[in-house]
Task: structure prediction
Amino acid sequence: MTFPLTIEATAAALRAGEFTSLELTRALLAKAKALNPTLGAFIEITEETALSEAVAADAKFAAGIDLGPLQGIPYGVKDIIATKDAPTTANGLILDRSWGAGYDATVVAKLRAAGAVLMGKLVLNEFAIGMPDASKPFPMPQNPWDLERSASGSSSGTGIAVSTGLVLGGLGTDTGGSTRGPSSWNGHSGMKQTFGRVSKYGCVPLGYSLDHINPMARSAYDCALMLTVMAGYDSLDPTTVDVPVPDYAAELTGRMDGLRVGVPMAYFFDAPDLEPEVRAAVLAAVRTLEEAGAVVTEVALPHAGEAKDANMIIMYSEAFAYHRDDLAARYDVYGRYTSEVLTRGALLGASDYVQAQRFRSYWKRAVADAMADVDVLITPTSISPAPKRSEMSPEKQLGGSSFTSQWNLTGLPAMAIPCGFSEGGLPLSMQVIGKPFAEGTVFQVGHAYQQLTEYHLRVPAIAVEAAAAA
Amino acid sequence: MPAPTDTEGTVRTLLASAGLSLTDEQVAMYVRVYPRLRASADALFAMPEVRYEQPAVIFPAAV
Result:
């Protein structure tokens, strides 16, 4: 049996009786178990939970109970987010194994209440920072489009699992690009919504003032379905904001008429390390949107490089406060790239942190000014398609450009949308940035683009072959 | 043993003050990245636009 690629289509098929959630879940469990040794997507597959939740979803359908479009939909959770039925490791040996035991993070509780089916806990860069370390006893994430290449991070397992259809949606986190990077290099959609829109309760922190828990799925529409369930004020997370949550998917029209798109050419399109084929693909996507009715203008957005650095200073400082004592006592128990990057926080001072927070105030206003006459900005998501893992290092990343971290600094919604493939067959991605709490507009752009293109529906050959063999 | 450079001395002091006791190889890695980090932080102090900004950290007085 062939199953649909998206949550949207699967939800319709479940209600049409084309297959049951249990049939779907069994098929995805088999595929996950077959591919996980190669791809390194899951730390733990929660088979027992998945089967029982699928049975429960089917029973509700049979009884005429419909909890909404996520009922019966298999999804995965980045293993830095607490789930009551599996341990949370943060992909490392440092985190106290009693942390998060026996309770669900708020987002997981919401997904469970919506009838979604938990498939398992997904691989990440340890503590959501650094790079994978093959010497540690955790799966090594591989890019499904080319196994020698990086699946990005830190939500690598979620990116791999969504790309290959081991799950229909998943949770990532994002402190400087950790949802959008894996979405970019694995070839699907991923939304970092406005800071405060989704509760972080039950998630191991990296940068307290920068962290987000986010939906990752094949399409913008699917991310909209997930965010509608995940969002909302939570008294357990004082950073959440009590504002109404729209039914994001219901608002999607697929039209771009009159939407105003700003393109910040400086830095985001002229960075020396930006690969020309990424630049060309994103500008082609902007032209597609313009032909569909968008009004496109160039906007000036100075100091984007400094914004990247301010985000880095805040993230290192906040993360180091959390990890300092463990680094002092057990430096080598961390993965080598995790400790390497976390310890950079020791080299910064309190005034550096406060100055970065002062820059943050300036940058929020500068971005608001730049967006005064547009609805969204569009930039590349990543500087390049997925590089070979052997060519990557934290030192190289430190000096490179980033197009994602600026939006953690502002807290603005920003979504990765597939917009092409490289000559080498690797996914390319554009980033759509919206105004505060205007995720609906960002989804509108992504959804409209995905009505005109099919990049988000392409599946890596390794997953196609696995499905054919099943 | 050659005398440490200013950067190396600074890095060793900062690491030690955080309770970190690292190998020479590990320290050398931080000596390499420290100038880049320091320059990034200093650049934010050099921006006239930020001179009179309030930091973007707030807290509610009520518990």
Q: What stands out?
A: Chain A has a mean pLDDT of 97. The longest strand of chain A covers residues 414-421. Chain A touches chain B at residues 209, 238, 303, 306, 309-310, 312-313, 320, 324-325, 327-328, 331, 340, 343-344, 346-349, 352, 354-362, 364, 366, 395, 398-399 (CB under 8 Å).
